Amino acid sequence: xxxxxxxxxxxxxxxxxxxxxxxxxxxxxxxxxxxxxxxxxxxxxxxxxxxxxxxxxxxxxxxxxxxxxxxxxxxxxxxxxxxxxxxxxxxxxxxxxxxxxxxxxxxxxxxxxxxxxx
Length: 118
Description:
Blueprint: E1 3-7, E2 10-13, E3 18-25, E4 33-39, E5 46-51, E6 58-60, E7 68-73, E8 78-83, E9 92-99, E10 107-108, E11 112-117
């Protein structure tokens, strides 16, 4: 029913920027809290950022504060992750996710690869 499709990943030089997008279809996008997660080879999936239904409240992992910005456009059913000052440590597959209030994330996209070269 509900589908999440990430895009915008790719190869970028250290110090550069990248913006990821996640388009949501088949549901009421404005009712969902949204999040971004990532998973590097040999590591567990980790939380990156989240945003509430209206976009008024955001929360970030300590490791990405001041470099990443999460935002959403409810008119376009899309959530974004702006990534600045990139270094190879952030290289991973990035996933977007959705949830209702007071629940764990339970809707997931297929992921998009981000690779930062040194």
